[in-house]
Amino acid sequence: MSTKPPPLRARGEKVARRGNGRSAAPLLAVLVLLVGALLAAWRYEISSTKVAAGRPPVKLVVAPGSSAESIARQLHELGLVRHPLVFSLLARGTGLSGVLKAGEYALSGPLSVRGILDALARGDVVRRDLTVPEGRNLDEIAALVVAEGLDLAAFLAVARDPSPVRDLDPEATSLEGYLFPDTYDVPQSPQAPRALVGRMLDRFRAVISPHLEQIAERGLSVRQVVTLASIVELETASAFERPRIAAVFWNRLERRMPLQTDPSIVYALKQAGRWDGNIRKRDFEIDSPYNTYRHLGLPPGPLGSPGREAILAVLQPAATRELYFVSRNDGSHEFSETLAAHNRAVDRFQRRRTSS
After folding, report:
1. Between vectors from CA 168 to CA 166 and to CA 171, what angle results, nearest 5°?
2. With pLDDT > 90 as the criterion, what percentage of the chain qualifies?
3. Domains delineated in the chain
4. Is the pTM value of this prediction over 0.85?
């Protein structure tokens, strides 16, 4: 019995299959090399230095709501990534794409793409110290804020909204008097004005909260205390004199005498756009509710932001019956209980000085 050889077609198929198996090995090797090269290029791209040490910082401004893709395009335009896809994939792969912070960045080297991503995730935005001196009013604080690069309109929009202090001062028409004077670390970001105002209000609350019970027991309002404290703040820079000056004003209020404080005239002139750095005789007749020469009692509201010592002086005034004081022209004041004594002090420290 003879055995027929297998059909040639079948042999051909078998040979073809063997041939495919032998040709797959070089292709696989090529793929491995290609993947390895891509991985090496990827590692190099994300870890190599993009912002060199000693070079000027690269400014990057990330707008609120920016996606990882839009930030990637900005970085590409700045020459910090070869292709936006590199940063986008890295952000998504690390799970950081949803936590990148808006703001102004000054990217300083040495910094890689991964380092840039980490800086944006941490929110390492540019920050500057803003010092608000005691006694400054809203417009003056706004000028300081603008000097630090914050948006004027955005700051005033927040500062003129009284709702955050309505629990302390139902009569507030703005945050005048409640933006506590201090030094603040200000981030350079679109949210900075609101964040700054929030911190200033928190600082005020920390100072006033321990005294709220005392204020209520004396039948006073927070607005009255802050208003008088703002006057005391503007009348003297001497911490030693503040309780004494506060006592003078309390004594005058009790006797229904006008406060006759020059800072109220200055504030009225500023509100009217008439302040040029000098008070003239006609200014004491300005038609304003802040004119304490024409109107009894406290002015309608604070003249600026008092510091802690001025607030404490109002709450803890000196035990004195004095009703008057006049500047000695050396940073201190001469205090008097009677008008006659006060006129002599004025003659001594002011009139003779003017005529000499």
Report:
1. 55
2. 59
3. 50-122 (3.30.1490.480), 127-208 (no CATH), 210-355 (no CATH)
4. no
